Amino acid sequence: QVQLVESGGGLVPPGESLRLSCAASGSIFSIPNMAWYRQTPGKQRELVASITSGGHTDYLYSVKGRFTISRDNAKNMVYLQMNSLKPEDTAVYYCNAGIHDGSSWRAYWGQGTQVTVSS
Fold first, then answer.
1. How many helices (H) and strands (E) in the chain?
2. pLDDT at residue 3 above 90?
3. What is the sign, positive or negative, of the torsion defined by CA atoms of 109, 110, 114, 117?
4. What is the rounded CA–CA span in Å between residue 113 and residue 48?
5. Would the pLDDT of 61 be above 90?
6. Average pLDDT, whole number, for the chain?
7. φ/ψ (deg, to 5) at 30
8. Which of 12, 45, 68, 93 fits as disulfide partner to 39, beta carbons 3.0 to 4.6 Å?
9. Nearest-5° angle of CA 9, CA 39, CA 81?
10. Separation between Cα atoms, residue 35 and residue 51, nearest integer Å
11. Quick one: pLDDT at residue 1?
12. Whole-angstrom Cα distance, residue 34 to residue 38?
């Protein structure tokens, strides 16, 4: 059974930084793609950043230059470094990974971690 576990959320004032981490564990053969999504009440979940196993990254326009996604393939982990945080970054952040277990592929989600940016 594959599991994604996030950590690193919290409450910070505007302009500060947070680093989210997500660890994938279980029956894992490969993880072609990992990503971070976020969701606020009443809105659809949106893709914040993604990264392939080869290191290609994509970002939501509003976080470009402030957020950096990275991954450690040996540890099956993905990170989101969030700098210059703004109140509009407040959301529940979810880790997402497309994982192949050696016989099939499916997408997995973490449980979510709350990020609140407020003075």
1. 0, 11
2. yes
3. negative
4. 14
5. yes
6. 96
7. -160, 155
8. 45
9. 40
10. 6
11. 84
12. 14
